[in-house]
């Protein structure tokens, strides 16, 4: 089958778009998930795809989709490979469609504050092109320099400044998507519509299972007039949750609100650690008057709750280092299995989930770290980012320990009434728990949508959809 599909694709779109280069096949085998990196290190590498298709325009994507469907060959969408939940794992009988060559800015409209980018545009490049015109998107994931705008849509991403600017679903104005039948759907670019269900939502978070995003139009913003920092100590996580809840429910929206438990303060900000205190850092930006008023009110709320101000230099340190993290390989090569798991819950449930998940992780043999911080805040709830690190006595046990740590956090979250994913998506790692999150009726509906949109099951099989093997 390999030569047949490769030849068919080359006839459809040209030799320059279809590659069997060994280095490219090797680089596109999987995303950046810990388990894929560990499997590589321990001699269980994911196979290579039969070929890599690198379309340059939407018409190329249509031809690639049609050719794969007609030949009954799986098609795996690939953005820039920054996903961390095994949303991309190649198969020797599958074609991998690499969207990185569709990297043009189609239009920036400063009157309507709209910007249209092809799906393969790097996030940092999109932001830079907006900044040149005094604009910004306001979507700043830690992966901004290694992720694509199409990938943001596919995974339903969220950036570090989301408390004020929202997540990707709040920024997407219109989409261009190639469906599994080869048709192109372009949602109408209007500020709001009541023309039935919002079709954009079908593809937000679909993880390449329902179509291929080829272009995204965002609603953008003018760059802020002023930016300032504040930080506060609090005796425990519950006190910090209460501080954040009061700030946001009183109508204030610092774009960045990040609360670290005592363990993370010592690990990330050792020069600012204060006993067993937790730490909340905030970034305030916007019109100067709004920033000043917001800071004054946050200081009053913190004072009323008994939270002491901390040095702004801790926020400066975070701001400078926020996108610099060690690679997984640095830990894995030393026998340390590590990962982060983000979840979300309403205010009345978050404390129990935090306590339960950290306690459960603490029961893992040879656990070296079990901690959490919050990074996205809402009027009706908040997220948590759990971090675990374990050092099994036998490196052969690393994969099993990894799965055990994930199981413990997922079970604690579901038992506490939380949501199992805040912004990294489902992929293959979370898929075993998706049915419990969605419920029987929800899973059945998702499966029916998949069957209707992609009846042959060609689009990124094995990802997201429960029961699809």
Can you walk me through this structure?
The protein has five domains: 2-100, Uridine Diphospho-n-acetylenolpyruvylglucosamine Reductase, domain 2 (2-Layer Sandwich), CATH 3.30.43.10; 105-222, 2-Layer Sandwich (Uridine Diphospho-n-acetylenolpyruvylglucosamine Reductase, domain 3), CATH 3.30.465; 226-321, Alpha-Beta Plaits (2-Layer Sandwich), CATH 3.30.70; 328-415, GMP Synthetase, Chain A, domain 3 (2-Layer Sandwich); 430-469. The chain is built from 17 helices and 19 strands. The two termini are 20 Å apart. A hairpin with a 5-residue loop joins strand 8 (172-178) and strand 9 (184-186). The mean pLDDT is 97. The longest helix has 23 residues, at 431-453. The protein is 37% helix and 21% strand. The strands form four sheets. Strands 12, 13, 14, 15, 16, 17, 18 and 19 form an eight-stranded antiparallel sheet that branches. By secondary structure, the chain is of the alpha+beta class. It has helices at 2-13, 22-27, 34-41, 58-70, 123-131, 149-155, 162-165, 168-171, 200-203, 237-249, 262-268, 288-304, 313-321, 328-332, 347-362, 398-415, 431-453; strands spanning 18-19, 51-53, 75-78, 95-98, 105-109, 114-118, 135-136, 172-178, 184-186, 212-219, 221-222, 226-234, 256-260, 278-286, 308-309, 337-346, 367-374, 377-378, 381-390.
């Amino acid at each position: 089958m390999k030569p047949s599909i490769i030849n068919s694709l080359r006839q459809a779109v040209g030799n320059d778009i279809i590659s069997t280069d060994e280095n490219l096949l090797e680089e596109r085998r999987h995303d950046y998930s810990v388990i894929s990196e560990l499997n590589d290190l321990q001699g269980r590498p994911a196979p290579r795809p039969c070929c890599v298709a690198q379309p340059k325009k939407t018409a190329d994507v249509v031809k690639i989709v049609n050719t794969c469907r007609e030949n009954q060959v799986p098609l795996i969408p690939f953005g820039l490979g920054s996903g961390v939940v095994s949303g991309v794992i190649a198969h020797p009988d599958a074609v991998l469609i690499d969207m990185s060559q569709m990297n043009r800015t189609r239009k920036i409209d400063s009157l309507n504050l709209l910007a249209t980018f092809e799906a393969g545009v790097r996030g940092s490049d999109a932001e830079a092109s907006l900044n040149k015109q005094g604009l910004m998107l306001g979507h700043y994931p830690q992966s901004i320099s290694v992720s694509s705008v199409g990938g943001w849509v596919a995974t339903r991403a969220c950036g570090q400044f989301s408390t004020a600017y929202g997540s990707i679903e709040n920024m997407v104005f219109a989409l261009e998507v190639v469906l599994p039948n080869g048709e192109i759907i372009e949602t109408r670019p209007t500020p709001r519509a009541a023309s039935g269900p919002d079709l954009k939502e079908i593809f937000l978070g679909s993880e390449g299972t329902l179509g291929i995003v080829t272009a995204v139009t965002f609603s953008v913003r003018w760059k802020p007039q002023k930016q300032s920092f504040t930080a506060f100590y609090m005796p425990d996580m519950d006190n910090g949750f209460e501080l954040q809840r009061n700030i946001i429910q009183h109508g204030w929206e610092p774009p960045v609100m990040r609360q670290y438990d005592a363990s993370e303060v010592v690990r990330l900000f050792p020069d600012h650690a204060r006993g067993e205190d937790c730490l909340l850092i905030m970034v305030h930006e916007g019109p100067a008057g709004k920033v000043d008023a917001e800071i004054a009110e946050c200081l009053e709320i913190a004072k009323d709750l008994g939270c002491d101000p901390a040095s702004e230099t801790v926020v400066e340190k975070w701001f400078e280092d926020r996108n610099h993290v060690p690679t997984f390989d640095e830990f894995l090569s030393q026998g340390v299995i590590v990962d982060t798991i983000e979840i979300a819950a309403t205010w009345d449930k978050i404390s129990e989930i935090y306590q339960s998940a950290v306690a459960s992780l603490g029961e893992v043999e040879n656990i070296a770290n079990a901690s959490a911080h919050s990074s996205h805040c809402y009027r009706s709830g908040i997220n948590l980012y759990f971090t675990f690190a374990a050092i099994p006595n036998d490196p052969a046990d690393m994969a099993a320990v990894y799965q055990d740590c994930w199981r413990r956090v997922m079970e604690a979250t579901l038992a506490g009434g939380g949501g199992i994913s805040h912004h990294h998506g489902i992929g293959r790692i979370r898929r075993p728990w998706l049915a419990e999150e969605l419920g029987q009726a929800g899973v059945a509906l998702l499966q029916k949508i998949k069957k209707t949109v992609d009846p042959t099951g060609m689009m990124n099989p094995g990802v997201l959809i429960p029961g699809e093997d």
